[in-house]
Amino acid sequence: IDAxxxxxxxxxxxxxxxxxxxxxxxxxxxxxxxGSVGIGFAIESSAVKQISDxxxxxxxxxxxxxxxxxxSMTQRYAxxxxxxxxxxxxxxxxxxxxxxESSGIKRGDIIVSVNxxxxxxxxxxxxxxxxxxxxxxxxxxxxxxxKEQMLKVTVRERDDKALANTDLDPARANMKPPKPGxxxxxxQGGTLRALxxxxxxxFDVGAAGAGLIIVTVEAKGVLSKADIFPxxxxxxxxxxxxxxxxxxxxxxxxxxxxxxxxIIARVGCGNQERCFDLTVLRPIEIAPVE
Length: 290
Known about the structure:
Layout: E1 13-15, E2 21-28, E3 40-44, H1 45-58, E4 68-72, H2 75-81, E5 89-94, H3 99-103, E6 110-114, E7 117-118, H4 122-130, E8 137-144, E9 147-154, H5 170-173, E10 185-187, E11 190-194, H6 197-203, E12 212-217, H7 222-225, E13 233-237, E14 240-241, H8 245-257, E15 263-268, E16 278-281
Antiparallel strand pairs: 1-2, 2-3, 4-5, 5-6, 6-7, 6-8, 8-9, 10-11, 11-12, 12-13, 13-14, 13-15, 15-16
């Protein structure tokens, strides 16, 4: 605010020219060790009201919790999905029983705004949600299957018991990769085959028949560049399940036919620290111009 604030007035009201309280004074800018230069800072009254209401009700400020794992959008994701914007936060996973699941947010949704304020990336979404008060209902704009839609989301207090266990599995770090077999299929960057029940349990990557186990990875190949290793599993490509190697090859062919360079894969790799949920693969070779 462009008004002088007397020393000791932090916590006092900020008035406009109509005598209305529009904020609460918090600090001044000073280049003289305490003297005002006419620039001050205040918390807007709407935020103060929300905070005071929750203090009266709960005796403490309880910040909102959404219950999702997220990652930032990039231009490569936008191009692969055929989207006009590269802003937003991708929902990688939804906590079971959390506010997001109860409000209809699904894995693969791209959150692009909260209460009319744009979301640029995952960091900004975290800030937006952190500023919401637990119990408040808010408007979330998401992109799902290429179309925008609005969802009413009631955020709650963070439930630590509902959060997934992120402890690393020390046994998996030294686990031997899958053995090559007759059902392996060669793809650009390595080989893969349908995930079996034993492999799903052993490598902690999903359910049998619901993905493709990576058997071998070529050095400096497509899979290697995406940090995919033997024993990982490709569960979906471009939001569609990959139950057979043909599903994967068909997805690559469809992307190539549409003139796209990348596909988006959901990858399972146990509960290791390097784990991720969505990654960009570039399995489509671009022929050099001669």
